Amino acid sequence: MPFEFKLVRRVEFSETDAAGIVHFSNFFRYMEAVEHAFIRSLGFSVKLDQHDPPLGFPRIHADCDYRAPLRFEEEFEAGLLVREKRTRSLGYDIRFRRVGGGEVARGNLVVVCVAHRPDGSLAPTPIPGELARLIEVAPADRLGSGPGP
Prior knowledge:
There is one protein chain. The protein is 16% helix and 36% strand. By secondary structure, the protein is α+β, with helices and mostly antiparallel strands. The protein has one domain (4-141): Hotdog Thioesterase (Thiol Ester Dehydrase, Chain A, Roll). A hairpin with a 5-residue loop joins strand 7 (114-116) and strand 8. The model has no long low-confidence stretch (mean pLDDT 94).
């Protein structure tokens, strides 16, 4: 479905802190990884160099609420749902679940499509039509109550 994507992975030792749980900052890396995998599953990259000027998708908002610890070697699933699709931006809800267990965290990202101008500046620009046509917003009943506590 072009509104949902799931990525399963195992916690690496380097992702844990002194208490033996995943350091909070790694959830932002996991959110980025599932977003990139979602876009790749559609046949694209978040770095669109074939456009002139090249396009990209920087974050304009990211947050994460933590519900339970995740530890070294545990497997977890990062499930992405497209919450919002606008002309120039995408909003994602991302839910982390322990494989065979319960919810670990909920996050959300908002990314905006930008053109990388030759002078180094960024300019918001519409998401290319060939990519935008492949992305749908998840049904409201799939989104639930959102990432709040």
